[in-house]
Amino acid sequence: MMMFRHFKRPYLRAGLFAACVVALVLILQQNDSAPEPASSRVTDAVFPIPSHMPYGSSPATADDNPNIALTKRLANPLERAQNLRLVYDKYKTSNDPAERNTAYRAWSACFPTFVAPQGQAVTLDLATRALPQNGANSAERIDAYRALMGRCKDFFDMPHDAVIAQTQQQNGAWLSGDLRTPGERAAKYLADGKTQEAASTAHAIIASQDPFAIYSLREFMGTYLALPGNAQSGQAPGQQDVRALAFYIVPCELGMECGPDSLTALQLCAHTGECLGTVAERYLHAFSAQVDRTVLENESRRIADAIKAGDYRALGL
Fold it and tell me: What share of the chain has pLDDT > 90, as a percent?
């Protein structure tokens, strides 16, 4: 993706790259970027963790920590799923908020990307019409759209109005707080000025050792590390950015499905043109200079070791 490239200094580049990655996430989760209505309540959010857990504490048992096994049970099967409608139909009315979040992710992988105009069929040409002619990776991006269409095709017999209504319903459920990932819940606490609750939620996520739950912290970490008074806030902004960016890479090392045929890898290729290798390699490839990729790889290994050791201080938490 060209806007990621041609940076001049490693840590200055990291700051710009962080902004680009945030934009990338907004592309992959298009509905997530809508503003939150004033009526939304944190208490309605997904993955409830006690609001007043003592700072630095973690759930003592697996039963106390709702983040454990999210990857094995839901996230990795979604990444590998060849029929996203089956996933959506299975979980859309579940009483488990984590399962409803999985249904939302299955739906939003297909829509609004593959919404056709009223009276028209969904076609590959329609989905890829906006791609630059003869652009870099055009063939690979078209192949990625084709693969995504294959995973979404069982939705395509739905009437146009039903697709629009379901898209609005899923978007509304996310806005209400009902479908937030664990890390998004921590970010909401932080946005509301509830720093202790945000940190405790993040601690519980790290304690779970669950790759997807840890991946969901990626945006929270960028904001939290820069807070005045945080031990990391005295570092150069680029260093904070690299620490936060490591949360895009580390979950792949911890066991999240990140192969070149995973759902996220296909989305990265289709929507951003990053089409080479695994999910982690696609994020790393956004740096044009090897020195920057090395910095991020080294930081990712350090963060992975800190997560495995439960070393919150090393994580900036």
Answer: 50
On the 0-12 / 13-18 / 19+ scale of CB atoms within 10 A, 131 is: middle
What's the CA gap between 273 and 267, in Å, rounded? 9
Q: What is the pLDDT of residues 200-252, one digit of tens each?
A: 999 999 999 999 999 999 889 988 888 876 655 444 445 557 888 899 999 99
Longest dimension (CA), the chain: 57
Q: What angle do CA 300, 306, 312 make, to 5 degrees?
A: 120
Beta-carbon contacts of 44 under 8 Å, excluding residues fewer than 6 positions away, are 176, 177, 178
Q: What is the DSSP string of 18-70?
A: HHHHHHHHHHHTGGGGSPPPTT--GGGSSS---TTPPTT---SSGGG-TTTTH
What pLDDT does residue 40 have? Answer: 28
The three-state (H, E, C) secondary structure of 73-101, written as one string: HHHHHHHHCCCHHHHHHHHCCCCCHHHHH
Kindly report, residue by residue over 177-214, the tens digit of the pLDDT. 888 889 999 999 999 999 999 999 999 999 999 999 99
Q: Give the distance from CA 221 to its chain's centroid.
A: 13
- pLDDT over 90 (residue 116): no
Half-sphere exposure of 210 (CA within 13 A, CB side): 25
Nearest to 84 by CA among 148, 152, 150: 152
**In the chain, where the domains are located:** 2-31+59-315
Q: Which two tokens stand for residue 172?
A: 């509304």
